[in-house]
Amino acid sequence: MDLHPIFRNNRDIELALRQAMFKAARSGETIMEIIPGKGSGKLKKRVLAFLNQPHIKKLYERFETDPTNDGRIVVHFRS
Fold first, then answer.
1. Which of 18, 34, 44, 66 lies 20 to 30 Å (CA to CA) from residue 8?
2. Residues in domain Smr (predicted)?
3. Which tens digit of pLDDT belongs to each residue from 18-57?
4. Which runs of consecutive H residues, i.e. helices, occur in the chain?
5. Cα dihedral 13, 9, 53, 30 in deg (nearest 10)
6. Distance (Å, rounded) from C-alpha 12 to C-alpha 66?
7. pLDDT tens digit string along 55-79?
């Protein structure tokens, strides 16, 4: 999921993340990549705060930032 096109609107970011997370969890996906980009880091912090919300944490097993690409977050869903 590339967040570049909607990075300026917090409501759109939250809605897009929420919809993508619930859809991936429902459909049995094992991973989801979120691309906040490298930039200033504000969007990445927003995504990490979203992922740390208790009701969202229930959807996935863990997440990690890509050590070779700081602008990429990989979410691992429960099987």
1. 66
2. 1-78
3. 999 999 999 999 999 999 988 888 889 999 999 999 999 9
4. 10-27, 42-51, 54-57
5. 10
6. 24
7. 999 999 999 998 888 899 999 998 7
